[in-house]
From TrEMBL:
PROSITE patterns found in the cross-reference section: HELICASE_ATP_BIND_1 (PS51192), HELICASE_CTER (PS51194), Q_MOTIF (PS51195)
Enzyme Commission identifier(s): 3.6.4.13
Pfam families: DEAD, Helicase_C
Biased composition (Basic residues): 546-557, 575-584
Annotated spans, Disordered: 337-357, 542-599
Domain DEAD-box RNA helicase Q: 19-47
InterPro entries to which the protein is assigned, alphabetical: DEAD/DEAH_box_helicase_dom, DEAD_box_RNA_helicase, Helicase_ATP-bd, Helicase_C-like, P-loop_NTPase, RNA_helicase_DEAD_Q_motif
GO molecular function: ATP binding; hydrolase activity; RNA binding; RNA helicase activity
Recorded family membership: Belongs to the DEAD box helicase family. DDX56/DBP9 subfamily.
Protein name stated in the entry: RNA helicase
């Protein structure tokens, strides 16, 4: 982005770390609502963006993943609507549009707005519109004369084409337009939809653009929609203005063969060497299910989140995971899961695998990695490496959100070394390929891995292609059973329901006890010790069902993180370098990463 008079870098923004929400000029109802959510202090991007947005300025806010960009625009947006005198009876179209790239984000932003409105007890109305809704559902949603509309650009276009939204009404009513995750909107193929909409956006409309990275796409959107905006570039205080992975995320890696990935992930989870909750990424749906079936045999429960599932099932899985019903979520991110992109043949990502069959089945607006606010994910595991450095940043960004800490472990096979090196050189300090900001995972000894090898290989062999296909189909069947829309069908055809249920029961297996519990004699003492420390830390974080002590919810930060203070190899081991006894500050030798956006 070329620097303009309104372009403010962090140094010029003079962020006052002690500034409170009151000092930002925020309405007391919103402040109370935030307090009820346990939020007391604005994040840096909120400190700079909120007052400017309240003032009515167009703003481009660029701040790293998990930095609180959603509230940075939602709070002033709501505040403005509190005082707007628009008479709902004569409202032709909503006052504010919030556009996001995926349905998952739609739901997330919608929930966030709804809960703020409820907590503030104000008579504002929000609706979410998604492309999967029927014309009559879209009409019904809009007929309630909502104040805020959360949607994807494609769905707005559908409403315009179907005459459900009138261009003239938008021109008369639209006071605020937000493009959230702006760096992703164009790559999802929404350019035409956005162009069509902007033709009807009145000049008086305040436009906001929120993004985790700067890119040519953001620049394009800026030209398309904004008028002389304030450009806020706000990484955390750090060495490099380009760094975008939060500093509170520790990054680790393990080198092993593709086959050994199973025994390594088993060791990490079974020996409890990583903190719950864990988000695991694979690049294909089949691999996701293979992993799920494999872990299941050892009594490790997980769910697979993928574009094949119906929208309501995906939301359900996300809600359950966020609510803590299970600790491990396997998410499929092929680095190019932008359905729209695939349909349009615009995909520039480097994936080699055929997507022929996926095209029809996958949801075009699916996006699980980007922007989704997974609650309390402490560890991200790359079971398979992403296809680009940008993909890596977005995956890792699912942990260490807001003021929380997190860790990532990338399990890298020889044929992924090339992309791993690319990630390191792209994100490493000054682009010099500094390798140390992703440290070797220190808590796992070779002995510990070897002790589990026999069982792991045995079970991995038993997870055949047929078993994977069956499990994938079963997941879909289960979701169909849960689907609201099919209730009516099953009422008319009870036999169909019986058949599905029967199938469900038949395919349930309990993992054998000898795999669920690893016998004591197999456990490596050093790794066992590491596991104990991680467990203790988990308990101290109020994050372990079995060992939680009442009133012990205090979060472990800094040196309290066991990944920073323990080395399984001992002081003389190969990993001494990563003994993680930080020089001075805990973070000193975790080199801040930076990204030259490559996607
Ligand atoms: N001031 C705050 N204090 C503490 N937590 C906050 C604050 N503001 C937001 N959060 C929480 O931080 C988390 C991340 O916020 P949010 O989803 O807005 O990040 P983001 O910048 O949009 O990230 P991404 O680019 O990945 O979408 C959310 O769980 C949110 O509730």
């Amino acid at each position: 982005m070329g620097k303009s008079s309104n372009e403010l870098q962090e140094q010029e923004l003079e962020v006052d770390e002690d500034q409170s929400f009151e000092e930002l000029g925020l309405d007391s109802r919103l402040i109370r609502a935030l307090q009820k959510k346990g939020i007391y202090k604005p994040t840096p991007i909120q400190r700079v963006a909120v007052p400017l947005i309240i003032e009515g300025k167009d703003v481009i806010a660029r701040a790293k993943t998990g930095s609180g960009k959603t509230f940075a625009y939602l709070l002033p947006l709501l505040q403005k609507l509190f005082s707007s005198d628009s008479d709902s009876k004569s409202k032709l179209s909503p006052d504010a549009f919030v556009l996001v790239p995926t349905r998952e984000l739609c739901q997330q932003v919608y929930s966030e707005v709804s809960s703020l409105i409820e907590l503030c007890r104000v008579p504002l109305k929000v609706v979410q519109l998604i492309s999967a809704m029927s014309t009559s559902d879209l009409k019904t949603a809009l007929s309630g004369q909502p104040d805020i509309l959360v949607s994807t650009p494609a769905c707005i276009q559908t409403c315009l084409s179907a005459g459900i939204l009138q261009p003239r009404a938008i021109q008369a009513s639209l006071a605020m337009l937000v493009l959230d995750e702006a760096d992703l909107l164009l790559s999802y193929g929404y350019e035409d939809d956005l162009r069509a909409l902007t033709a009807h956006v009145p000049r008086s409309c305040q436009c906001l653009l929120m993004s985790a990275t700067s890119s040519a796409d953001v620049e394009k959107l800026k030209k398309l929609i904004l008028h002389n905006p304030y450009i806020l570039t706000l990484p955390e205080v750090g060495d490099s203005k380009d760094e975008i992975i939060p500093k509170n995320v520790q990054q680790f890696w393990i080198s092993c063969s593709a086959r050994d990935k199973f025994v390594y992930i088993l060791s990490l989870l079974k020996l409890e060497l990583v903190q719950n909750k864990v988000l695991i990424f694979t690049n294909t749906i089949d691999m996701g299910f293979r992993l799920k079936l494999f872990l299941e045999q050892f009594g490790i429960k997980s769910a697979v989140l993928n574009a094949e599932l119906p929208q309501n099932s995906r939301l359900h899985i996300l809600e359950e995971f966020n609510a803590g019903l299970f600790d491990n979520l396997i998410a499929i991110d092929d680095g190019q899961s932008h359905g729209k992109e695939q349909e349009n043949g615009q995909n520039e990502a480097k994936g080699k695998k055929s997507k022929k069959h996926m095209k029809q089945k996958l949801d075009a607006e699916f996006g699980v990695v980007r922007g989704i606010d997974f609650k309390n994910v402490h560890t991200v595991i790359n079971f398979e490496m992403p296809l680009s450095a940008a993909g890596y940043v977005h995956r890792i960004g699912r942990t260490g959100r807001a003021y929380n800490s997190g860790a990532s472990v990338s399990i890298v096979s020889p044929d992924e070394m090339e992309i791993f090196k690319e990630i390191k050189s792209t994100l490493g300090k000054d682009g010099s390929g500094d390798a140390n900001f992703i440290a070797t995972f220190p808590l796992l000894t070779k002995n510990a891995v070897e002790s589990l090898r026999y069982r792991a290989e045995d079970v991995a062999r038993s997870v055949t292609k047929v078993a994977v296909r069956e499990s994938r189909a079963q997941d879909l069947r289960n979701e169909i059973l849960n689907s609201e829309k099919l209730k009516a069908h099953f009422e008319d055809n009870p036999r169909d329901l019986d058949l599905l249920k029967h199938d469900k029961v038949l395919s349930k297996k309990t993992p054998p006890a000898h795999l669920r519990n690893i016998p004591e004699y197999l456990l490596d003492p050093t790794t066992q010790e590491a596991g104990k420390i991680v467990k203790l830390a988990r308990a101290a974080m109020g994050n372990a069902k079995s060992v939680r002590r009442p009133g012990s919810k205090k979060k472990f930060r800094g040196s309290g993180n066991p990944l920073k203070t323990f080395s399984a190899e001992g002081p003389n081991g190969a990993n001494r370098r990563h003994h993680l006894k930080r020089k001075g500050s805990n973070r000193d030798d975790i080199h801040p990463s930076r990204q030259k956006r490559s996607a």
